[in-house]
Design brief:
The complex is a heterotrimer of chains A (134), B (339) and C (118). Chain A has 134 residues and is of the alpha+beta class. Chain A has 4 helices and 5 strands, in the order E-H-H-E-E-H-H-E-E. A 5-stranded antiparallel beta sheet of chain A has the order 1-2-3-5-4, covered by helices on one side. The longest helix of chain A is centred in the N-terminal third of the chain and has 22 residues. Chain A is globular. The longest helix of chain B has 48 residues. Chain B folds into 3 domains: 64 residues; 140 residues; 114 residues, STAS domain (Transcription Regulator spoIIAA, 2-Layer Sandwich). Chain B has 13 helices and 5 strands. Chain B is an alpha/beta fold and 339 residues long. Chain C has one domain: Transcription Regulator spoIIAA, CATH 3.30.750. Chain C is built from 4 helices and 5 strands; from the N terminus they run ββαβαβαβα. In chain C, helix 1 runs parallel beside helix 2. In chain C, 47% of the residues are buried. Classes of the chains: A alpha+beta (134), B alpha/beta (339), C alpha/beta (118). Chains in contact: A-B, A-C, B-C. At the A-B interface, loops of A face helix 10 of B.
């Protein structure tokens, strides 16, 4: 298996490619069906954010180990316009694309760990981790 | 490497003499100090080098001697060990004695002696063999409820035995390296035994945890299309997750149209618990079934309303019998009394 | 790629057998509305048994399909949503409270009948 392949996102199809690679990795690490869906969906949301706002960027999905815990880390990186108010973007119901407003707060709920760095004009970096239950 | 820079002292003295004759006074004075310095440096280097060489030689010797000594005196050491063990009172002596006997039969002392080998492969093999014996014989001690400290204790006796031998007394230089090596060995052994204990405890804990989880939220296919899940105990996020998944997969398996969740046995219904229940109910709706929550006590109703939890899409009832009646009605059935 | 839409009496039947991507979802919305308009169907069952993931975008498209169909006088029932998909949607904060659901195609058609014929 390729080590931490990062997927370049610049069209709608790359969203599908990114989430499929996430699902494959989650499956190979032994994540349950529900967590596989959570990880895949989180990747889909992040990849779509890149596609919609930054036009292009990359998604990196890799396994993480901590003690005897196993998890999956998703990194989403772009050099797009960034987010003006990160706190606000994490509030439910806030979305600039007119979706259901699930975007970032949704990803935060789907994953166990979530962090975001963004500044206007400089792009956005989102890191999220999901740990396997026992 | 260090030896290359060493000038033979005679040559140095000769050089000093020559320079003194042929060079003007002032120049010589300056040069003189530099020469002294380089002689000093050479001498210092030589001492360190020789010392290191000596230590290295003695370490090899010590290792070889220890390995040989243990191998040649295995029977004697075993005998002494047994005597010392019987002198230490223990409430589990029988099981521990069996454990140690198994370990010695597996060649514990031979492996210990090979730990002193200067061949890396042999050392690794020794460690590996001891780990294998531990895997085999530590678990019975665990099952006999023997504290890990008592399992480890007999091994300390060996160290004392080895340190008190005539051989060591004759070579005081061996004491420090022997203690050092023995400590390395025992640290490894003790850590390993501890690991076996802690892993088994952890597994037991996890097994019990999942047993409790299953017991405290069983899924009961009550009637055709009706499934009941009574929840007992406290609900945290992990448990809520498991309960929800069980509910959803179970409802699909039983082709349930109605799922009754009984929260009579849930000790405390706070905001978090209420949210989990609402989320579970919403998830049940999505898979195509209906959720009825029963066992709502007055204080739970008060909590939910004062916390502003939106229960719109939930059918909630106070008792199981009411819930069952509603569930039957939704699936086109009813309870009829027969005189 | 296009999702086939079948006609069954007064009802339409859609079984989504592929992983939905954005374009397919939008195309499907278009096709279904056209079909409802053309056939005058009063009910649609959309079976999602094979769908393993629905993100907020696809959820919005599907939610819109329901509202638009209702504007055309057609009821929509979703069937076969998988537990994993259901839990993920709830985590995303999409509860689809006003959407009709059933466990499988058969129950879905039954539900439509109940809704439309009482």
């Amino acid at each position: 298996m390729d080590n931490n392949p990062s997927i370049h996102v610049y069209n709608e199809w790359d969203i599908v490619v990114a989430r499929q690679s996430g699902r494959d990795l989650a499956k190979s690490l032994g994540f349950g069906e529900v967590d596989q869906a959570r990880i895949t969906t989180a990747i889909s949301e992040l990849a779509r954010n890149i596609y919609l706002y930054a036009k292009q960027g990359e998604i990196e999905v890799s396994p993480v180990y901590e003690g005897d815990k196993v998890g999956i880390k998703i990194i989403s990186r772009d050099n797009g316009p960034g987010i003006k108010d990160v706190m606000k973007a994490l509030e439910d119901g806030y979305s600039t694309s007119g979706g259901l407003g699930a975007g970032l707060p949704g990803v935060k709920r789907l994953m166990d760990e979530f962090s975001i760095e963004s500044s206007e004009g400089k792009g956005t970096l989102v890191t999220a981790v999901k740990w396997k239950l026992f | 490497m260090a030896g290359e820079e060493i000038l033979p002292p005679i040559y140095v003295v000769f050089l000093m003499f020559i320079t003194r004759i042929f060079l003007p006074e002032n120049y010589v004075k300056i040069k003189w100090e530099g020469l002294y310095y380089s002689i000093y440096r050479c001498a210092a280097k030589q001492t360190i080098y020789q010392k290191a060489q000596f230590e290295d030689r003695s370490a090899t010797m010590f290792k070889k001697t220890s390995q040989q000594f243990i191998q040649e005196n295995t029977d004697e050491i075993e005998k002494l060990w047994r005597e010392r063990r019987s002198a230490v009172p223990s409430s589990h002596s029988q099981t521990i004695e069996t454990f140690i006997n198994h370990m010695t039969q597996d060649g514990f002392l031979l492996h210990l002696s090979n730990f002193f080998s200067d061949k890396e492969k042999e050392r690794e093999k020794a460690i590996n063999n001891i780990e294998q014996s531990c895997y085999r014989y530590v678990p019975p001690c665990m099952e006999a409820d023997i504290p890990v400290s008592e399992v480890i204790q007999p091994f300390y006796l060996i160290r004392d035995i080895l340190l008190e031998t005539e051989e060591v007394k004759q070579h005081p230089a061996f004491i420090l390296p022997l203690i050092k090596e023995m400590d390395r060995f025992f640290l490894h052994l003790i850590t390993f035994i501890h690991d076996i204990y802690s892993i088994s405890w952890k597994n037991k804990l996890l097994a019990q945890r999942s047993a409790i989880m299953e017991l405290s939220a069983p899924l009961i296919p009550l009637l055709e299309n009706i499934t009941v899940m009574p929840i007992v105990g406290a609900i945290d996020t992990d448990r809520a997750e498991l309960i929800t998944q069980n509910l959803l997969y179970g409802a699909i398996k039983n082709e349930s149209k109605v799922v009754l969740i009984d929260i009579t046995g849930v000790a405390e219904v706070n905001t978090m618990v209420a949210r989990h229940i609402v989320k579970a109910a919403e998830a049940i709706h999505l898979i195509g079934a209906e959720c009825i929550v029963v066992g709502i006590r007055p204080e739970i109703a008060q909590t939910m309303i004062s916390l502003g939890i939106d229960m719109d899409m939930l059918t909630t009832l106070s008792s199981m019998s009411q819930g069952l009646r509603v569930a039957l009605a939704r699936t086109g059935k009813e309870i009829k009394e027969i005189n | 790629m296009r999702i086939p839409i079948l006609k069954l009496g007064n009802y339409l039947l859609v079984s989504i057998q592929i992983e939905l991507d954005d374009k397919t979802a939008v195309q499907f919305q278009q096709d279904l509305l056209n079909m409802i308009h053309k056939t005058g169907s009063t009910g649609v069952v959309i079976d999602l048994t094979s769908v393993q993931m629905i993100d907020s975008y696809i959820a919005r498209v599907l939610g819109d399909v329901v509202k638009m169909s209702e504007l055309l006088g057609c009821q929509v029932v979703f069937t076969g949503i998988q537990p994993a998909v259901s839990i993920t949607l709830i985590d995303l904060g999409i509860s689809f409270r006003n959407i009709k659901t059933a466990m499988n195609l058969e129950q879905g058609l039954e539900k439509l009948k109940q809704l439309l014929e009482g």
